[in-house]
Amino acid sequence: MRLTPANPRSAPIAVVFTDLPGIVLMAGALLVEPMPVCGCDACDDSAEHLVDDLEWKVLAMIEGGFREHVTRGPRAHISHTLERSDRSLSSEGRAGADTTPKELSAARARLAPLDGGRWKPWSQREKTSGASR
Length: 133
Known about the structure:
The chain is of the alpha+beta class. The chain has one domain. 20% of the residues lie in helices and 30% in strands. It contains 2 helices and 7 strands. The protein has helices at residues 47-62, 101-111, and strands spanning 2-3, 13-18, 22-27, 31-35, 66-70, 77-84, 87-94. The chain has a 4-stranded antiparallel sheet, covered by helices on one side. Strands 5-6-7 form a 3-stranded antiparallel sheet. A hairpin with a 3-residue loop joins strand 2 (13-18) and strand 3. The relative contact order is 0.18. The model has no long low-confidence stretch (mean pLDDT 90).
């Protein structure tokens, strides 16, 4: 399921359903986050916790609290930050072997017009008057 905001400077969001069972949250230029991260019995994430986490992350993204950064060079690093009034989450690491130089370059180009890599808030849908039931 892909959600694309009207503003190209707002982060697109996709939710991919997997066989684990689970989902993969994809957003912005390069965020890819499986939920749950692990499907083993020892980790045993509750469905309620995962749904709350997904909701928090999507709300941070659509409210404009999502930043991404991709460094240049052969050992490129990717960082993501999600912020809302109640907390923030950050991750950083080297680009994986499955991320091609072309994808990294495209991500840098996509992030370049954003202020510090911060995606804009999604615009609110205009209310229509006289909607019928």
